[in-house]
Specification:
mainly alpha, 7 helices, globular
């Protein structure tokens, strides 16, 4: 079962959840707002290091791909940059697994002064994890299953 199949089967809390109706698009919107407010500076949401920025970026893009539509198009556009760059500078076909490692390394290895960069790399990583499948998609499958149970 992949992320697209889970997303197709998910109807989150159609009126039965603890917080009322919650959809995958709604969760994506909330996650994007948390990412935006946390990076811009908020008294409530603290995204103050590269690990948090990357994690929220991965969470946002995972939900966005599963939600589909404009959300999916936007994050897939962000993810095309590292995939295209990796294809252009490497000899042969490094594969999406290697690209996933590279994007994760770019998000977490450098000492970033501006946390928007690890967030963007995290958004790219979330999409690439889904496309790569295998071990990379396990965390996403678990995350989507948890999102399904929220409602």
């Amino acid at each position: 079962m992949n992320a697209q199949q889970i997303a197709a089967d998910v109807t989150l809390a159609a009126g039965t959840g603890f917080a009322g109706p919650i959809t995958l698009s709604g969760l994506t919107t909330v996650t994007g707002a948390v990412l935006l407010f946390g990076l811009r500076g908020s008294d409530t949401v603290k995204i103050d290091n590269k690990k948090k920025a990357t994690g929220w970026g991965v969470a946002f893009s995972t939900l966005a791909v599963a939600a589909g539509g404009t959300f999916a198009d936007a994050v897939k556009g962000v993810a095309e940059v590292p995939v295209t760059f990796n294809d252009a500078v490497s000899s042969g076909d490094p594969g999406l697994g290697c690209t996933a490692i590279l994007v994760t390394l770019c998000a977490l290895a450098p000492r970033w002064k501006n946390l928007w960069w690890p967030a963007l790399f995290g958004i790219s990583a979330g999409v690439i994890y889904t496309q790569a499948g295998g071990l990379w998609a396990v965390g996403q499958t678990i995350g989507l299953a948890i999102a399904q149970k929220i409602g």
